[in-house]
Amino acid sequence: MTLHFDGTIDRRRFTLEACFTCEPGETIALVGPNGSGKTTALQLMAGLLRMTAGRLSIDGEELDAPDRGTWVPPERRKVGVVFQDLLLFPHLSIRDNVAYGPRRRGSSAAGAGAVADTWLERLGVAALAREKPRSLSGGQAQRVALARALATDPRLLLLDEPLSALDAATRLEIRCELHRHLLDFDGYAVLVAHDVVDVLVLADRVVVLDDGCVAQIASPDELERHPRTRYAAALVGTNLLQGRRHGTRIELAGGVEIAAPGPGADGPVDVVVPPRAVTIMAAELPPEPGSWQAPLAGMEAAGDEVRVRVGGPVPLVARVTLDGLHELHLSPGAPVHVRVDPATITVFGEPTQPVDALSAPVRRRVPASPGGT
Amino acid sequence: MTRAASPGTRAPRGFVAVGVLAAAFLALPVLGLILRAPWGDAFERLGRDGVADAVRTSAVCATASTFVALVLGVPLAWLLAQGRIPGRSLIRAIVLVPLLLPPLVSGIGLLSVLGRRGMVGRLLDRWFGVTLPFTTAGVVVAVSFVALPFVVITMESGFRSLDRRLGAAAATLGADPGSVVRTVTLPLVAPSLAAGTALAWARSLGEFGATITFAGNLPGRTQTLPLATFLALETDLDQAVLLSMLLLIPTIVVLVLLRDRWQGLS
Q1: Is the pLDDT of residue A13 over 60?
Q2: Residue B176 domain-assigned?
Q3: Is residue B39 part of a domain?
């Protein structure tokens, strides 16, 4: 009783080749940069696209297996989808929107209406049953879309950035409700997410896609501790550097060297550097040992702190307090001294054993493969 | 639809005068008909021989032709809007032919294909004993030919403005392609469908050239209201004006029904 996804799809400028599994009751988050294949993977599972090669099965039933000529069209898959733009039917009332699925799947009009009423009640939008979608607020429309997807009693629930269209307050509220519904849901749930909070709160496991390939499969904790791609590191708010360990030193790109925090084998390593481990000093000051010079690449406010990005061969994000920023007299493109505190960084030897003990085998695309977005 | 004048859009010299002239040019013939109509003995005139038959033939043929145009036109418009068929621009050009062709020429074309000695007409005659020219069915064929483009053009623009992803959403909820068309696509293009139907029906009602060429002018069978009006013109102008009024009224009704829809038509 598992969902197996192991497939390839060749599109004009893009190839997705991914493999992962999902267990009943589990929620998988698909994350990755734009164009990494998240939505394509979702459309393959929904049956809105067909695989070029590979296999998709749920509970042992094959839904898509081009080698064997198997393909189950979307209307005969037990799938519920919450689309990014919701796509509620504008000509139907809220109740008819939710009743649409059960009705198409063979319920009588009265039966489908009763199912719709139950779900509207459960999502707290029963009062809107007679309204048309255009009169709903963002949060209400989101609840209705979820009710519509769940009303067909799907085995697989697909959510394409279900919270992206909401304002901050509604987002918080809907996220909590969605979490509750996902806990109750005993099927397979796959979620495309861009927001780290959504991933950490909603997902049991995270599949990181990069340029059409699976770059990492990890639990949210594991992802936070050791993101394996730049994108994943940025998502969880930390820095990822690749380097090579020589005894107590780690050589990073461009000849920059930092001290290793503890013992370990020589060879390639991943270094996770939390922003608080990065110190930025004004260029006028004399360089401290272990520091290097880098150009200032950007700044953005984050509460009472500022996230300062430095460029050069070793790009990093640092957190600087507002007072600290004032003292630094920073200007874009100007050089600063950068230092990393060895006590707060984590070093992972490479190659590690399977990316994650929980995960299915990770396949990487043949590097020579052309294209990709 | 009124729009506030935006700064800097003053009318060029003379446009106002010419515009008024153009509007008057379009309105006056209609006004003339209304003023010239023999209202005094209208009831007596409408009761004359042939009028009721012509009204009936026209109503039956316009309605049947509109139905034929919808049945043939909606699927074609859907295919054109999807944009995946080969030779789409050629097909679209062919669809426009009846709009631009003089109706007389359309009638001759139909006669040469579906006439008793025409390419297809010969076979119809030989295999099924069916002859179309000079029959009521022939009127329907001629009028459908002329009305079809109105349905295709209106519906194609309707299908185009539709969010196709709604069909994908319906599919994930269990709707097969036929159900998607029935429960999502058609309800959402209903305004275009209404506009196309009204336009096709109005055009059908007034069709003259193709009808008289292909189906002749046989009272009670192929004599539609426009043909009867043309015939009356030779002997009795008042009668012709009154019959023209009968044709004017449905046109005005369609205009009123469609008053907000013109913007949506390409």
Answers
A1: yes
A2: yes
A3: no
Question: Is residue B6 domain-resident?
Answer: no
Pairing of strands A14-22, A3-11: antiparallel
Scanning A332-361 for CB atoms below 8 A from B yields none
Considering the entire predicted model, what is its pTM?
0.77
Q: Which burial class, exposed, middle or buried, applies to B135 when counting CB atoms under 10 A from its CB (0-12, 13-18, 19+)?
A: middle
CB contacts, 8 Å: B165 with chain A: 83, 85, 87
**CA dist., res. A159 & res. A155, Å (int):** 13
Phi and psi of A329, rounded to 5°? 50, 55
Instruction: Identify the three-state secondary structure at position A144.
Output: helix
Of A93, A173, A181, nearest in space to A138 by CA: A173
Residue B113's domain spans which residues?
A: 48-263
Which of B241, B3, B175, B209 has the alpha carbon at shortest distance from B98? B209
CATH of the domain at B122: 1.10.3720.10
At A367, the pLDDT band (50, 70, 90 cuts) reads very low
Tell me, rounded to whole angstroms, the distance of Cα B107 from its chain centroid: 15
B169 inside 8 A of chain A by CB: yes
Sort out which chain B residues have CB atoms less than 8 A from A91's CB and list them.
Answer: 184, 187-188, 190
The chain-wide mean pLDDT, for chain A, equals: 88
Q: Write out the H or E segment, with its range, that includes residue B17.
A: helix B15-36
Where b means 16+ CB within 10 Å and e means fewer, A64-97 reads bbbeeeeebebbebbbbbbbbebbbbeebbbbbb
Under the banding of pLDDT at 50, 70 and 90, the label for residue B68 is: very high
Total domains present in chain B: 1
Nearest-5° angle of CA A359, CA A362, CA A366? Answer: 170
Candidates A179, A214, A261; CA nearest to A356 is: A214
pLDDT in tens, B104-162: 999 999 999 998 888 898 888 889 888 888 899 999 999 999 999 999 999 999 999 88
Contacts of A124 (CB under 8 A, 6+ apart): A143, A177
Q: Give the span between the Cα atoms of B192 and B205, in whole angstroms.
A: 20
In this structure, are strands A53-58 and A3-11 parallel, antiparallel, or unpaired?
antiparallel
Residue A21's beta-bridge partner residues? A4
Nearest to A192 by CA among A206, A179, A182, A204: A206
Judged by CB atoms closer than 8 Å, whether chains meet at A80 and B163 is answered as no
In a domain, B82, yes or no: yes
Is any Cβ of chain A less than 8 angstroms from the Cβ of B12? no
